[in-house]
Amino acid sequence: xxxxxxxxxxxxxxxxxxxxxxxxxxxxxxxxxxxxxxxxxxxxxxxxxxxxxxxxxxxxxxxxxxxxxxxxxxxxxxxxxxxxxxxxxxxxxxx
Amino acid sequence: xxxxxxxxxxxxxxxxxxxxxxxxxxxxxxxxxxxxxxxxxxxxxxxxxxxxxxxxxxxxxxxxxxxxxxxxxxxxxxxxxxxxxxxxxxxxxxxxxxxxxxxxxxxxxxxxxxxxxxxxxxxxxxxxxxxxxxxxxxxxxxxxxxxxxxxxxxxxxxxxxxxxxxxxxxxxxxxxxxxxxxxxxxxxxxxxxxxxxxxxxxxxxxxxxxxxxxxxxxxxxxxxxxxxxxxxxxxxxxxxxxxxxxxxxxxxxxxxxxxxxxxxxxxxxxxxxxxxxxxxxxxxxxxxxxxxxxxxxxxxxxxxxxxxxxxxxxxxxxxxxxxxxxxxxxxxxxxxxxxxxxxxxxxxxxxxxxxxxxxxxxxxxxxxxxxxxxxxxxxxxxxxxxxxxxxxxxxxxxxxxxxxxxxxxxxxxxxxxxxxxxxxxxxxxxxxxxxxxxxxxxxxxxxxxxxxxxxxxxxx
Lengths: 95, 460
Hints:
In chain A, 31% of the residues lie in helices and 33% in strands. Chain A is an alpha+beta fold. Chain B has 11 helices and 17 strands.
C-alpha cells in the first residue's frame, strides 16, 4: 500500500468535495488502465471549514507492480495542486 | 567470630571487619544496635570505617528504612519502633547497615550529659542493598509491610552531576558502566536540575501526540486532562511508548517509589500512532494538538522522509506561537538520516545523552539539533498491563531513545511557561550547559544539555 499526501492550493474557491471528486476521477482512470488495483481518497479533515486544513488529502492506493510514480505524476500535473508527495512514515522513537 | 558476617560467602566475609559481638538470638529493638547476646551493644569504634565492611559491593539499588524516634522523656532513652524480621535478618547477614549506628552509640553514651541529642534524636536509618530492580521492588514491598511505622524508599541518586571536567565518553554504555548505580534512579531529573523545583505548572497544558497513554496509571491519572484516540484501535496504549513519554513530562508519583515527571503540567494526549502508521490519522492528531489549548507540543516521533502535510501543520503551530519539541531520531547507526518533524523550521530538535553527558550512541546528529537531554536508561511510567515496549514490566520501566529526551525539554518548557505566566517565547528561555569538551554548537550535542540552571539560553 502506498500513500500520497497532497494539498490543493487554497483560495481557488473550490469546495473540498470538488477536490475529492477530482482525485476520485484520476484514480478511477488509473484503475481502468490497470495501473492501480485499489485506491481510497480521504480528506484529512472532512468537513473542515479552514481552507488550510480542508485542502489536505491523502490517497491510499495499491500500485500494480511497485511503481507508485505514475499516480503521483498525474496528481502533480493538476494546476490546483500545491504539492503531492509519497507520505513519509512516522514512528515512535524509543531506541 | 562475629556472627554478623556468618551468612556471607567466605570470600566476602574475609573482607569484612568485626562488627558485633556474637551470641544467640537477635534483638533489634534496643536503642543501640545489638546483633546478638540480647543486651550487648554494638562496638562503637572511633573510626566508622572500621566497623563496617571495608569492601561492600556497589549495589544496584539501595533501599532506605527510616524510623523516627520518640524523643526521650525524663530518664528514658529515645525509643524507636521494633524492626521487622527481614530487616533484622539482613542486618545480621550484613546485607543491611545501620547508617547512624555511630551517632546512636555516641548519643547514648553521652545521653546523661547531652540531653539535646536525646530530645531531638536522629531517626533510625537502615540502608538495604538490593541486587537488581526486581529484588529492589520485592524488598521495598517486604520492608514496607514489615515496618509499618517506617518510611521505606529507594534511595534516589545524589552523586550524578555534570562531569564537565571529564573527557567526553565514547559511547553511552561504556560511559554508564563506570558510573555509580542509577537504576531506579531519576538521573535525568538530577542532571537537568528539576528534581527539587517547586514551580506550579498545573495551569500549563502540554499536548502529546503519541501511541496513547495508560489513563489508569497511578502516577499519571491526575496529570491527564484529556485523551483522544484518532486511530481505529482501542484507547489502550499497547505500545507503552506514550505512557513512558507522558511520565517524563508530568507524572505525579513519589520519586522514591514511583515516577515524578519534570513538572505538574496538564497533559492533553492524542493517540495518533497505532500499530500501523496511517498518515491521515497522524495528521488529525497532530492538528488537534496544534489547534488545541496546549502551548507546548511534544512529538517523540519521526521518520526520515519529509511529509509536506506535516510540514504545513508544524508551520501552523509555529505561526500560532506554539512551542514544538521533537525527537532527533535513533538511527545514527543506520545512516544517520535527517528526521522529520525534528528538522523542520521552528521545531526544537532534541538529541539523547547518557549520564556522562555523552551522546547516546543511537542519537541522530545534524545541524538542526537544538540541544540534548537525558535519553539513555530513562526510568518512567509503563502501562499497568503488558505492552509491546516493556513486555511484562508494568508501572515503571527504563527506556532509551530520543523519544525520552524530548519530553525532558517539554517538561522544562512547561515550567518556563508557568514561571512566565504565558507560553510565548519559550525557546529563548530554555537553558543549557555545554557537554564535556564542548565549546560551541555542534551537530552531535546542539547547544549542550538541558539544565534548568544552565549558563546559556537557546538562540532564537
